[in-house]
Amino acid sequence: MPFLSSLPPSVRQYLLVTGNYWSFTLTDGALRMLVLLHFHTLGYTPMEIALLFLFYEIFGVITNLVGGWLGARVGLNHTMNIGLTLQITALAMLLVPSSHLNVPWVMAAQGLSGIAKDLNKMSAKSSIKLLLPPCAQGALYRWVALLTGSKNALKGIGFFLGGALLALLGFRGAALLMAAGLALVLLLSMRFLQRDLGRSKAKSRFRDVFSKSRAVNVLAAARLFLFAARDVWFVIALPIFLASQFHWSHWQVGAFLASWIIGYGAVQAFAPKITASFSPAVPDGRTALLWGAALSLIPLLIALALHTGTHTEISLLVGLLFFAILFAVNSSVHSYLIVSYAREDGVSMDVGFYYMANAMGRLAGTLLSGWIFQTAGLQACLLASTGLLLLTTVISLALPKHSEDNRPLINAAS
Q1: Using CA atoms, how far apart are residues 19 and 13, in angstroms rounded to an integer?
Q2: 288, 334 contact by CB (below 8 A)
Q3: Half-sphere exposure of 71 (CA within 13 A, CB side)
Q4: Does position 337 have pLDDT exceeding 80, yes or no?
């Protein structure tokens, strides 16, 4: 590829990592929507649908813990390609006849997909720190925000793609098309991605996956409750609420959630400009605290609007807009902080530990979303989200803060 060859090595590898991550994320979002809508149509309850994703989230927890150690041992290029291979396998498992497409089989396929997703994400996020010098904190913040934001925009398109492919090609046709596309990406990744990227110089011991850094541990705890607060109402409760209460079609649910994720991803990509409008310094613990506190108000206000019956549909959609903006900034700040806090040699282990906490939050949020929605409805899910966000805010009090004499700037030259 002449274009890639003409670029500086760090930029070339960044584009390869990002392109790999984009392709994977597109199929990941589509697969989630495909499974959710297909089994909702078959009459599965919200809790049963939540259980379909149980292995996806459980193996995400395990994978981030083991994957960080594996990336330090064998290199991040290998863990990224293993992730692609497992996602292709998960999609192939869904090509069996409908009579074999039962809950245990789909749970197993989702388990493989969960392993694949977190290997791919851990590899991509860890790679960024290795492509920039330690002094370039402003550039690091921008690169991490761009990778994270663009990934989530693609995940949103994947949500729409899943709903559209289900309507156009059916369940098996959609899975086959995505598996074929990822196989092509895998071949390109194996050919062009830098060998031994991220392999630790020192021999990595498995016990080292548990971070010894207080900053990493505190941030991981905050991240756990942040993502549980999102998924407790967004993952299961919201799509089913839109379909059952507002009588939206598969196309409408998929298109709306896609638009939400795309907008959320765009805000993430521009998070450095947003936070710079309040402070020119790169984020620290104070930044995470203030943005977390602001976010905790949104689900509470939406719940109050639904309780009073104040323009229910409009209140929910407008509330989702504000939630997307504030959650995106929170997520980008956290994503920058973990890459900044992570040790240079063996970065994947600190990043893997952090995303293990992220996966635990998603797991808790997914299960709570199905159970709370089935027993108490969407308002209760929103109140649970508020409580979890307050925990995130309190934990953020313990994150490190810049001293006044050492506050690196977002727009500092890299």
Answers
A1: 10
A2: yes
A3: 35
A4: yes
User: Is the separation of the CB atoms in 156 and 328 below 8 Å?
Assistant: no
Sequence-distant (6+) residues with CB within 8 A of 171 are 34, 38, 94, 98, 101
Mean pLDDT (the chain, rounded)? 80
* CB atoms closer than 10 angstroms to residue 33: 26
Distance separating alpha carbons of residues 354 and 335, to the nearest angstrom:
10
- CA distances to 90, 152, 245, 297, 410 from 301, in Å: 39, 25, 20, 6, 32
The three-state secondary structure class of 281 is: strand
With CA atoms as reference, report the closest residue to 392 among 154, 222, 246: 222
Q: Which residue has the higher pLDDT, 14 or 233?
A: 233
C-alpha to C-alpha distance for 238 and 324, rounded to whole angstroms: 14
291 burial type by CB count under 10 A (0-12 exposed, 13-18 middle, 19+ buried): buried
Chain CA centroid to CA 235, Å: 12
pTM of the model: 0.73
Residue 87 CA to residue 109 CA, distance in Å, equals 9
pLDDT band at 248 (very low <50, low <70, confident <90, very high): confident
Residue of 265, 26, 253, 31 lying closest to 158 (CA atoms): 26
